[in-house]
Each structure stands twice: as structure tokens, then as C-alpha cells.
Model the fold of this input.
Amino acid sequence: MASVYRMLHVFTVGTSVLRNAAARAGSDPHLAPHASVLRSWAQASVDSSEDLEAGKSAVPGSPVFRDVLGAVAASPRSMSAELNAFLGLLDGLGEGSFEHRVCLLSTDSGAGWFSARVLEEFLKPMSSGIPGVYLSGDGLHRVVGTSSVRVTWLGRDFGKGLVNLLTEVKRAVSREAGWADEVLFNLTGGFKPEAGFLALAAGLMGVNRLYYIHESMGRVVELPVIPLKVADHVERILRRAAAGELGEEDYRALRELKILKPWEKEAAWLSEVARVLLT
Done:
């Protein structure tokens, strides 16, 4: 029996599903009845009545949800930037048998959560195999696990959201460490500053590859991850930060390293980031 190669994919998820559904509602007969609602959700600010409505509709029983899911099933690559990257990566893996687990990390908004839940429901039925119509490669691919998390404060407060994002990523990677042969970040969706930080943190978290859809080339680009190790003296400082035991010498060293600004006594996020990365 041929061996199976197992891959964990951590997606940062934006609102491309919802934005594309809104853009297509004028020409898609299944989406047309929801055109005004989809446009209002796609343009809504966080916590507006429209955004809250989108979040409440992120369930399979919602008619809007069902029809957007149907549009994604009909054309996943054009409806979702995240799926375009994922399926494009699979095309390039060549022959072989592959199992995939996908962790979807959503921004803390109704629109983001709606988009992530649509992707989750699209991928769930594929435990027996991703239909060949979605792929152009020769491999056999199964999605054997899918989960979604709405990351608290992500997209609302940069510091808090970043810490919570790191926490969820670390949790997903640690949970699947014994199962996955390879860990990959799909950084196509979501906010670019947070994705950039994840790209840096990947080397500390045991991640093997990063990939995304290049904006101008329109194809999947893979970035190697260089394994990183925090210098011993910095690690000792960060461990004291995580424990709330920083001294004046530590603050001086953190300012010299540019981790703290010259006028800062302590950054509130520092102990939390240290806790996530070092535990």
C-alpha cells in the first residue's frame, strides 16, 4: 500500500468569498435574490448592524449561506482567494496520496466569520477525496479534518489580535505535530501586517512552508521557512517577560535590541508574545 503524506494547512481568512459573492450577485441567478444583502455585508464596518447580521448568518441553515456555498462549490478558485492558493498548491504536488487538515483562522468580524464558515463547509465533505474537477494535478487528495476559529480582536486591535492569532496558530501546530509530515501557512487571506508577522514567527513554530497567490502574477508562490532560534540571552529575557519578572537591565537590553522604544518602560504585548512563542 502506498504511503500517505500528511499536510497541515493553517489559513488566514479574509472576506474574499463575501466580496466575490457580492460582485457576482448581478449575474448569478442563485445569488441575485441576495444582491443587496451581500453588498451591504461586504462593505460593512465591524460591529455595524450589517456586519452582525453577516455573522449570525454564518450557518448552513441560512439561505444566503447555502447559496454562497453553492457558488463556491461551482467555482472555488474564482470565488475564494484562499481556495485558489490551496488548490493551486495541490496541483503542483505531483503524483502520490495526500491527506490534508485545514485550520481556518478568521478575522473578528461577521463578514470574516461568514467567509471562513463557508470555506469550512465547502471542505468538510472531502474526506473521501477532493473531486478531480477542482484539480489539474495527478495526486490523490483527501481533506480529513477542517476547523474554523474566529480570532478574538483580530482586525480590531492590532496588539491583542496579533497575540490571539499567534496563540491559535501555536495551538493548531502543536495539536497536529504528531500527525503532520509538513506544516504550511496559507497567508493569502486576511490582513497583510499580521500575515507578515506570521511569516517571521513561522521559523520559530516548526512551520515548513508558506504559500499565497501572488497579486500580480496570479499564481501560487511558495516561500521557504528558515528555522530560527532566539538567541540565548534574548530567550532568557523573554522568559522573564512571560513570567512578569523583568528588571532594569532587561529593559535596557530590550531598548538596545529595538524591541522596546526608547521611551517605553514596558510594552503590554511583550509578555503575551513571549508566553505564546516560548511555551
Observations:
- Residues 21 and 68 are 7 Å apart (CA to CA).
- Strands lie at 4-13, 97-106, 140-150, 182-186, 209-213, 220-224.
- The two ends are 38 Å apart (CA to CA).
